[in-house]
Amino acid sequence: MADDILKLIQENVIQGRITKDDEGFDDGMAGQPGVTELIETALAQKINPQDIISKGLTRGMAIVGEKFEAKQYFIPDMLASAQVVGAAMDILEPHLAGAGAKAKGKIIMATVKGDLHDIGKNIVSILLRGAGYTVKDLGNDIDTSTIVEAVREEKPQFLGLSALLISTMANMADVMQALKDAGLRDKVKVVIGGAPVSEEFAKSIGADGYGADGFGAIRVVESLFNANAA
Amino acid sequence: MLIIGECINASNRTVAEAIARRDREFIEGITKTQVEAGADFIDVNVGAGQGTQGQAIEGMEWLVKTVQAVTDKPLTIDSDVPGIIEAALRSYRGETVMINSVTAEPERLESIGPLAARHKALLVALAMGSEGIPDTVERRLETCETILTRLTSMGMSAEQIYFDPLVLPISVDSRQGLVTLKTIERIKARYPAAKTVMGLSNISFGLPSRKLVNRAFLLMAAYAGLDAAILDPRDDKAMSLVRISDMLIGKDALCKGYIKAYRQGKIVD
To answer: What 3-state class would DSSP assign to B78?
Structure first.
């Protein structure tokens, strides 16, 4: 019974359906319960919210990631699924404290100084929220000193930096140096991304990880998170 | 519609490597192909961050000379670094030149604006300011107003300015196609002497069948009043649609341009 409803939640994440009125990616789904209705039912059946997240939402999102990487799914599909997870988390959050669940971790996101591009960073932020992280998005064109100050005050486990321009990616190196100077470098894992950025560039500036696309970023953060937890 | 060939751009790795090793044959080839395909301007972009600005300047000077050795078509100097633009203009021969680009950000407007005014260049002006790309038509128009006011006070005329309404991916926000199209309409209505230009490919980011989406958007933009497009002229279907849209919106008297292109085998179904 519990497994059935969790499976349905997972399927509806993949179909991008928030409520029963939504169409899915496949035809003929309108009218069947969407994720919000399914979660209300699951909670009424006393299913553990943590199981709803891990076996329903997170597993569904992982499959969306696989489909995206196989080019069966595209950005709008991914955003639809991420919105479903967001709506689901809004319902689940009040129940989590009672269930003794702990948040996965906090991540600060920013597009570096001089760079006004925020679409990539926003997509990664949405996916991280969908994966259960608490995300604080500083915005774009953010001064190095503002980023360092946010790391000092918020004490996040992760810092995500984005740049779309060849001329601004150098500012990522500035942030790395400023974190060192402030004595904060070993307090936070830094993951970078953006069109001109590469794995080699990440290594060269001493970042902890590089995400080639939205799901790549989630994968890197998850593996760093698990390595840290182990 | 004026066509700006976009292929010589260092954000493409193959091109960046060709520039780095000063591969004359490669650059000559890609220049000639674009001209033969119907490009009116050839865009040249050397990037910035890799290496020093001195290296980027040398790269740009070499690129301008190399491209101009094989064509008389004017160039579009594609950079937001005044030093690189200045170097390109120094190496340049010919009257007509376009600079790509300036924004309403004061530091760019005050550095690139005077350069364009002094060289009597055409100037691409992006409808954005210090806050990034506005997501509404009204706010994009405000940045155009800022730019036009400042550039005319520097001695430029509206005819020299090519406003880029900017294109955000439709995959991320489904209203953005209309924001761009309406911005074009409003710019043309408010500043009839000014021109409009845009790169098409951003609209289809994150979607399948991107070229088809780009071509459809090209037709809609032509109707909205787009004067120039930055695209890959080697896409013969897109170039066919450029000629067809000129004809359909009354820019091709007696359909001569279209029929001529057809006789040359340049209209591809």
So the answer is: strand
Please spell the DSSP secondary structure of A9-42, one letter per residue. HHHHHHHT-SSTT---SSTT-TTS--HHHHHHHH
The rounded distance, in Å, linking the Cα atoms of B202 and B166 is 9
Is A225 found in the same domain as A125? yes
Assign A16 a pLDDT band (cuts: 50, 70, 90). Answer: very high
Cβ–Cβ under 8 Å, residues A178 and A143: no
**What is the rounded distance in angstroms from the CA atom of residue B194 to the CA atom of residue A191?**
44
A230 against B237, higher pLDDT: B237
Residue B234: closest CA among B36, B62, B93: B36
Do both B124 and B157 map to the same domain? Answer: yes
CA angle at A118 for the pair A117 and A123, rounded to the nearest 5°: 140
Do A77 and A156 lie in one domain? The reply is: no
For residue A20, give its domain range. 2-96
The answer to whether the Cβ–Cβ distance between A71 and B208 falls below 8 Å is: yes
Q: Which ipTM value was assigned to this complex?
A: 0.76
Residue A227: band (very low, low, confident or very high) from pLDDT cuts 50, 70, 90: confident
* Mean pLDDT, residues A147-157 taken together: 96
Per-residue pLDDT of B99-151, as tens digits, reads 999 999 999 999 999 999 999 999 999 999 988 889 899 999 999 999 999 99
Q: Work out the pLDDT band at A230, boundaries 50, 70, 90.
A: low
Which structural domain, as residue segments, surrounds residue B102?
2-237
CB pairs under 8 A between A and B: 50
Residue A26 belongs to a domain with what CATH number?
1.10.1240.10
- A37 and A142 belong to one structural domain: no
Q: Which residue of A has its CA nearest to B202?
A: A119
Q: Do B80 and A166 touch (CB under 8 A)?
A: no
> Under an 8 A CB cutoff, do B171 and A166 touch?
no
Sign of CA dihedral B216, B15, A113, B206: positive
* Count of structural domains within chain B: 2
Q: How far apart are CA B51 and CA B81, in angstroms?
A: 14
